[in-house]
Amino acid sequence: MTRSHPHPASTGGATGHRWARAGVSIVFALIVAGGAKAAFDLSGTMMTHLAFVGAWMMFALGLAYAGVRIRPGIGGALLTGFGIGALLVVFFGGMQMFA
């Protein structure tokens, strides 16, 4: 039997390279955490610290969401990287409050 419909194009979700996605997650996590650290260092007062870090985190989440919409294959890796980066910011930011 022959098929009358062509095979659907892959969106990149099931295929791909596991190490490439892990690398994207790690690099984006470091970008999120590094950007939050830079925003923290560039600000002056405590409320400005929170505002700059919050603005950076929202910007990074927007980039991750745009990655999901544009390239679903790496979008999940970007969201995972954002989550890891956010945990790093919370962990090291909390440690800095106690220092």
Number of structural units classed as domains: 1
Helix content: over 70%
Structural class: mainly alpha
Judging from the principal axes of the Cα atoms, what is the shape?
Answer: elongated
Q: What's the total count of β strands?
A: 0
Most strands sheet: none
What is the count of helical runs? 3
Radius of gyration: 18 Å
Strand % is: under 5%
The parts where pLDDT drops under 50 for at least 5 residues are none
**What's the average pLDDT?**
81
Outline of the structure:
This protein has helices at residues 18-42, 46-70, 72-98. It has one domain (18-98).
Which key features would you list for this structure?
99 residues; mainly alpha; 3 helices
Question: Can you put this structure into words, describing what you see?
Answer:
By secondary structure, the chain is mostly helical. The protein has one domain (18-98). 78% of the residues lie in helices and 0% in strands. It starts with 17 loop residues before the first helix and ends with a helix. The model has no long low-confidence stretch (mean pLDDT 81).
